[in-house]
Amino acid sequence: MDKETELISIVLPVFNEEAGIENTIDSLENFTANQPQNFELIFIDDGSSDQSAKLIVNSQAYHSNIKLVQFSRNFGHQLAITAGIRYASGDAVVVMDADLQDPPAVIVDMISKWHEGYDVVYGKRVLRDGESWFKKVTAAMFYRGLQKITSIKIPLDTGDFRLMDRQVVHELSRMNETDPFVGGMVSWVGFKQADVEYERRERIAGYSKYPLTKMIRLAMDGVTSFSAVPLQLANWLGTFSILFSLGYLGFALMTQMDTAHFAVFSIFLMVGILLLSLGMIGSYLFRIFEASRKRPLYIVSKTTGFQDPPSPKTY
Ligand code: UDP
Ligand code: MG
């Protein structure tokens, strides 16, 4: 296929980004105007309560390649990405933050890797400007930990900034996962994967929409959708505590020591292990419960900028 006839979709999840969205649109339009390929920008408004959607609609008067899908409420970053790639019609789809933390210029490197024959090209962060040490340390720990306990290989230090070939997008669109962890799903589908290094910048405006609670939820989704190790851990903890208490009983009988205060300690320990294991089982059970309800993953209230009524691909 000629570069001139290739269509690249850029998917941008948006949640209350009014402070910087116009800047993002300008930068992307300037960038894409100088590229040989055709581009479409697909914004997913994830239930913003500010002017984000209005600003995007306004920009459609000047740019014919801007499309907007609006959710009926906030469904979360991962579902916004999921919807975005279903509405994309490009030969390749790039997902990036709407806050310009992922520099558009990196897309050139991603496209050339794609032309070399890679189906997934990850953006690998070699530097993270303006993010707290807490975020960097927890993210690094999470990705390393996840790699240890899952059989799929999620590349280290990558986020959601990546290019995917149409074939990969097709396979992803067939996966109807509640609480998706898109990074893991992309690794899971396979194909030829490569990465390009980039320096992640500071946000141009606004503040992070990922508070600790959302980060923890994403981490839990990552773990429970790809690993059974925490469930098995409950077995190991249980076995260990039974052996420990038997050993302790033997020791107490032999030495006839006063065990009163140690008893308190062991009760707390056992109850802790039990509750932890129960909680873990509960998390998996809840996933099954959610999947069994078969609700739609997200609800679209409105689409604008599409030529025909869009038909999201779910296969
Ligand atoms: N986002 C979203 N829904 C949410 C939270 C975030 O669509 O519930 C968007 C947000 O507007 C941004 C991207 O997802 O374009 C990544 O979020 P953010 O930049 O706040 O995360 P960070 O880069 O700080 O990890
Ligand atoms: Mg960001």
Automatic annotation (TrEMBL):
Residue ranges annotated for the Glycosyltransferase 2-like domain, each copy included: 9-172
Superkingdom of origin: Bacteria
Pfam families listed in its UniProt record: Glycos_transf_2
Family matches, as Gene3D superfamilies: Spore Coat Polysaccharide Biosynthesis Protein SpsA, Chain A
Topology in membrane: Multi-pass membrane protein
Alphabetized UniProt keyword annotations: Glycosyltransferase, Membrane, Transferase, Transmembrane, Transmembrane helix
Name of the featured protein: Glycosyltransferase, group 2 family protein
Organism annotation: Lentilactobacillus rapi DSM 19907 = JCM 15042
